[in-house]
Amino acid sequence: MARVLMKGCEAIAEAAVRAGCRFFAGYPITPQNEIPEYFSRRLPEVGGNFVQGESEVASINMVYGAAAGGTRSMTSSSSPGIALKSEGISYAAAARVPMVYANISRGGPGVGAIQPAQQDYFQATKASGNGGFQMMVLAPSTVQEAVDMTYKAFDYADRDMNPVLILADGVIGTMMEPVELPEMKSDEEIAAIRENKKKWSCIGHELDYANRSWIQPGQWDTHKMQAENEKAAALYESWEKDVQAEEYMVEDAEVVITSYGISARIAKSVVDILRKEGLKVGLIRAITVSPFPYKSYDKIDYSKCKAVLDVEMSIPAQFVKDVEMGVKGRCPIETCLCSGGNIMSREAVIEAVKKIFEK
């Protein structure tokens, strides 16, 4: 397939359309504005519907409603906008309604900065809303990965009857790169997807109210609520098969850099540079950050490894907490951090690695 040059946000939207997304509701916020702008033009061309809601809260509940009706649906926002959508996302998780959303994250907390950051890691992987629900969270480091992950996310959402999050950042969202777009799902394929949802979707047929939790999410007796939580826990455990990570030159590494998203892309170039200088450096990149690739850290040779270096655009560090669970105290963990809209520099990572070697 021919490669085309696309900005990250627009590529995410086009990938969603090609995956069969036919409803999008959202609200403007930098740096994700190109996603709703693209959908506003593109969805009418394929018989879909775009709505700019009056707020983030209105938008997520529109998506909840469209998805409950069996339509592949999506929303997007950035950091504080995602926080406003958290109740609706939690309702979708409680109701077991599949949906996809993207966070093109920016600096914080609060309104913060409009520049890129990775300060939403805890929100994405630990507390996206009330009640302890979990989601698959995919973290691209290139525009091509953002395309591929978005396309696949709709299949994950339908398979699990659960929301799926694309956790990107302002760099991935606004940079332009060549991508190969996936095939457009045909009208027949999209119709088949909707047909398969008829047994549970809200399409006007008579319902078994005793077994349809999405009618009134959370309005269950305690025994039914616990049973549903147990089913959800079993679902989350099943995601072990979906864990993805890149393990780059880890086998003989004396320093292992670990990161995700745009920071990992920068870190990988550092590995190549320092390897040419004779320094044995490797990289573990989390591709799924939920579920987290803890087992990748078992592949480090701790008899050789001086330290693991966590690289992330967050102060205080957040990703490092999962890294600590993977390393299990088998070597020191150092950090190389920036935040608030400052982008990680290759020079800062090189300096941090060389300091470890000097020790």
The run of helices and strands is: EHEHEHEHEHEHEHEHHEEHEEEHEH
CATH superfamily of the largest domain: Thiamin diphosphate (ThDP)-binding fold, Pyr/PP domains
Distance between the termini: 49 Å
Multimeric organization:
single chain
| Radius of gyration from the alpha-carbon trace, in angstroms | 21 Å
Structural class: alpha/beta
The tally of helices reads 12
Q: What fraction of the residues are assigned to beta strands by DSSP? A: 15-25%
Q: Enumerate the strands of the largest sheet in spatial order, edge to edge or round the barrel.
A: 3-2-4-5-7-6-12
Main sheet record: 7 strands, mixed
Q: Count structural domains.
A: 2
Level-2 CATH architecture of the largest domain: 3-Layer(aba) Sandwich
Helix content: 25-40%
Q: What characteristic shape results from the CA principal axes?
A: globular
Strand tally is: 14
> CATH topology of the largest domain, what is it called?
Rossmann fold
| The CATH class of the largest domain | Alpha Beta
Question: Which helices and strands, and how do they pair?
Answer:
Layout: E1 3-7, H1 8-18, E2 23-26, H2 34-42, E3 49-52, H3 56-68, E4 73-77, H4 80-95, E5 99-105, H5 121-125, E6 136-138, H6 143-160, E7 163-169, H7 170-174, E8 176-180, H8 187-196, H9 222-238, E9 245-248, E10 255-260, H10 261-276, E11 281-286, E12 288-290, E13 307-312, H11 319-327, E14 333-337, H12 346-358
Parallel strand pairs: 2-3, 2-4, 4-5, 5-7, 6-7, 10-11, 10-13, 13-14
Antiparallel strand pairs: 1-8, 6-12, 9-11
